[in-house]
Specification:
The complex is a heterodimer. Chain A is of the alpha+beta class. Chain A folds into 2 domains: 50 residues; 108 residues, Sandwich (Ctag/Cox11 (Pfam 04442)). Chain A contains 1 helix and 9 strands. In chain A, the strands form 2 sheets. Chain A has a 5-stranded mixed β-sheet with strand order 3-1-9-5-7, with no helix packed on it. Chain A has a 4-stranded antiparallel β-sheet with strand order 2-4-8-6, with no helix packed on it. Chain A is elongated and about 90 Å long. In chain B, α4 packs across α10 and α15 packs antiparallel against α16. The termini of chain B are close together. The structure holds protoporphyrin IX containing FE and copper (II) ion (CU). Protoporphyrin IX containing FE binds next to α10, α12, α13, α14 and α15 of chain B.
């Protein structure tokens, strides 16, 4: 092997070695990069259906009745929809409101869980905004109006013409109003 | 792409005249100090076979335990160590060194170079392997036993286990160093030392596949080294990369590991693509169909392999859009893979076929590797994989690609080049018996695992529900048959080294390439004067 080839080989070796050292660093760089990438791409939530909500088409040829139902599960809250039902075209964005009142003199935290009738409709019911995305904490006696923004996917099977959206509020365990309220009941 | 060489006669005369040059130490020192690519290639091949036997024995212990439901032979902790070490040893100790062995032997011969670019470094690359293997094997005997978190080394288990885990991490560091140095050597050799006239697009496909593989190795082995180093510092030095207790993210480990891991599975298979391309062409007596498209397909597979890692992570709770992306990207890789399979078939089409042992293994490869590709496509579908993840279906998938893929192509290459290495023909009849035994027992072992997986049998668990018994027994019997058949290969290889019909310089009439223009066995020094390729 001539001296010239030898020198050329060493240059190649150094370049490749530098590249592998760089890749070692890149492995470490992934640690801060991943969270940043996930944030900027908006994919930093787990298990969330983040597909674009709707095709832009509003299907004016059909109407679907959406009924609202509300329940509280053993909670001192009054909870009701402001309208009992709306009629919408699939694909159209709709906003409705629910009202909730805390009847207690202490703050209470609750979480609303949605369910759908018929259950199949759940797949086609896209909530863009909902009070059920977060826990709600109400101050003593507070009344709050809470919005739900939704869209019915035009792919909703034709034989479904009525969808019921039902919410149930559950009290969040960690925030349970124990001491003070019902001192006698603890026995 | 036949190379006519003017300098050939001279090179042979020179090499044949005094093959030893008389200035190398004898005995053990020869092997410890050698910088000769053929010696080093031979050591790699023997090392790899030894690891294949060690890893194989572990597999047989695993299969023995799984012969019946319930716990009979090994304790669950030890079972987990077995699956972990089996995976690590087979991937890093058997398959990868086998192909580095082929690379050492064949790349200089194929491109008309007298040796690898860096002989001393080549020696180091090899001699790093035995200490690493020793670390892995000895780790079984330390308190707490060997690493038992699976070859994928997921936290939190890796953060909790005993010193066996540290030994595995060091072994991985050493193995990584070795393969990075080997790859730098291979790339430099191919880029700088080709014979005059041997342009890249005239290069035999085996050398081409190694060029791509070597780049993959220097790109991702450092990432593996990094991620196990993070695990190590999490264990001992108070960092919290992956330990959730300190705010770390265990799922992040999986992302980084598979960013290495998916290119790694192609590191394992791509050199095999090269071997199969050349063997199919030789025994069809036709140049390989679509040479340029083969090269582009390899390059495409290499690049795409960086974009699909999270198909191993569909159940970690990715958002739907990410699942969809990884699903489509994974399916995209099947396209260049399909191009290769099409080209191999088209090479055989209207060829003048004969079915010597290398050809049998190559055809077996095409058939079974394609099956492995199909089960890969099934797993690539996010919606399906949620059910299949971590079941025996995945085990079946990757054994079709790694055993019937990488290992079968290694056997094809070994039989193809044995006459060149040893100067003798191997026993053709026994070679064919070896193929058919391997083929039948392989399928017996792994085909049934598809059904077990679909029915829900989880992987890496020493016990199982009663209804899985029959298929597991078939699989275990197949595994013992497969393992014993490999001893036949050992016998064939040794008797081929010891003697047998003398091999001519070019024992296969359809073979092409410079390696067939040096005598058999290839003398210690070849292409001291480089051939000129027209
Ligand atoms: C068409 C090509 C391929 C596709 C679409 C594919 C797809 C997949 C998918 C989706 C998984 C994840 C399964 C799960 O864990 O649920 C997987 C696992 C795996 N594949 Fe492939 N694959 C392909 C080719 C290969 C090749 C060529 C190899 C190696 C030579 C390979 C080796 C592996 C290994 C080792 C695993 C399991 C890793 C583990 O969890 O231990 N695959 N493959
Ligand atoms: Cu993969």
């Amino acid at each position: 092997m001539s001296a010239a080839t030898g020198a050329k080989n060493w240059r190649t070796l150094l370049r490749l070695a530098a590249f592998s050292v760089l890749m070692f660093g890149f492995g470490y760089a992934l640690i801060p990069l991943y969270p940043v990438m996930c944030k900027t791409l908006g994919i930093n939530q787990t298990g969330v259906d983040d597909r674009p909500a709707v095709s832009a088409q509003v299907d004016e040829t059909r109407s679907v009745v959406v009924e609202f139902d509300s329940n509280v599960h053993g909670m001192p809250w009054k909870f009701r929809p402001l309208v009992s039902h709306v009629t919408v075209h699939p694909g159209a964005i709709t906003q409705v409101s629910f009202e909730v009142v805390n009847t207690l003199p202490t703050p209470v935290t609750g979480q609303a869980i949605p369910s759908y009738g018929p259950p199949l409709a759940a797949e086609y019911f896209r909530k863009l905004e909902c009070f059920c995305f977060n826990k709600q904490t109400l101050k003593p006696g507070e009344r709050r109006e809470m919005p739900v923004v939704f869209v019915i996917d035009p792919a909703l099977p034709k034989d479904i013409s009525t969808v019921t959206l039902s919410y149930t509020f559950f009290e969040v365990e960690g925030n349970r109003r124990t001491a003070g309220r019902n001192p006698g009941a603890s026995a | 792409m036949n190379a006519t060489t003017t300098a050939n006669g001279h090179a042979e005369g020179h090499a044949g005249g005094h093959p030893d040059h008389g200035h190398q130490p004898a005995g053990l020192m020869r092997w410890l100090t050698t910088t000769n690519h053929k010696d080093i290639g031979t050591m790699y091949l023997w090392f790899s076979f030894a690891m294949f036997i060690v890893g194989g024995c572990m597999a047989l212990m695993i299969r023995s335990e799984l012969f019946q439901p319930g716990l009979q032979i090994v304790k669950p902790e030890f079972f987990n160590q077995l699956t972990t070490l089996h995976g690590l040893i087979m991937v890093f100790g058997a398959i990868m060194p086998a192909f580095v062995g082929f690379a050492n032997w064949m790349i200089p011969l194929q491109i008309g170079a007298s040796d690898m670019a860096f002989g001393r470094m080549n020696n180091w690359s090899f001699w790093l392997l035995p200490p690493a293997a020793l670390l892995l094997v000895l780790s079984m005997f330390v308190p707490g036993g060997a690493a038992a978190a699976g070859w994928t080394l997921y936290p939190p288990l890796t953060i909790q286990q005993g010193m066996g885990m540290d030994m595995a991490i060091f072994a991985i560091h050493i193995l990584g160093m070795s393969s990075i140095m080997g790859s730098i050597n291979i790339i430099t050799t191919i880029l700088n030392l080709r014979a005059p006239g041997m342009t890249l697009m005239k290069m035999p496909l085996f050398s081409w596949t190694w060029l791509v593989t070597a780049y993959l190795i220097i790109a991702v082995m450092p990432i593996l080294a990094g991620v196990v180093t993070m695990t190590l510092t999490d264990r001992h030095f108070g960092t919290h990369f992956f330990s959730a207790a300190g705010g770390g993210d265990p799922v992040l480990f999986q992302h980084i590991f598979w960013f290495f891991g998916h290119p790694e599975v192609y590191i394992v298979i791509i050199p095999g693509f090269g071997v199969v391309s050349q063997v199919i062409s030789a025994f069809s007596r036709k140049p390989v169909f679509g040479y340029a498209s083969m090269v582009y397909a390899i390059a495409a597979i290499g690049i795409l392999s960086f974009t699909v890692w999270a198909h191993h992570m569909y159940t970690t709770g990715m958002p739907i859009s990410a699942q969809l992306y990884f699903m489509y990207a994974t399916m995209l890789i099947a396209v260049p893979t399909g191009v290769k399979i099409f080209n191999w078939t088209a090479t055989m089409w209207r060829g003048s076929l004969s079915f010597e042992t290398p050809m049998l293994f190559a055809i077996g490869f095409i058939f079974l590797f394609t099956l492995g590709g199909f089960s890969g496509l099934v797993l690539a579908m996010a919606a399906v994989d949620v059910q299949m993840q971590d079941t025996y279906y995945v085990v079946a998938h990757f054994h079709y690609t790694m055993v019937a893929g990488a290992l079968f192509s290694a056997f094809a290459g070994a039989y193809y080049w044995l006459p060149k290495w040893t100067g003798h023909m191997y026993n053709e009849k026994l070679g064919k018996v070896h193929f058919w035994l391997s083929f039948i027992f392989f399928n017996m072992t792994f085909f049934v695992q598809h059904f077990l997986g679909i029915a829900g049998m989880p992987r890496r668990i020493p016990d199982y529900a009663l209804q899985f018994t029959e298929f597991n027994q078939i699989s275990t019997i197949g595994a013992f048959g497969f393992g014993l058949s490999q001893l036949l290969f050992l016998y064939i290889a040794i008797s081929c080294i010891k003697g047998g019909e003398k091999a001519p310089a070019k024992p296969w009439d359809g073979a092409e390439g410079l390696e067939w223009e040096v005598p058999s066995p290839a003398p210690h020094h070849t292409w001291v004067v480089q051939p000129i390729v027209k």
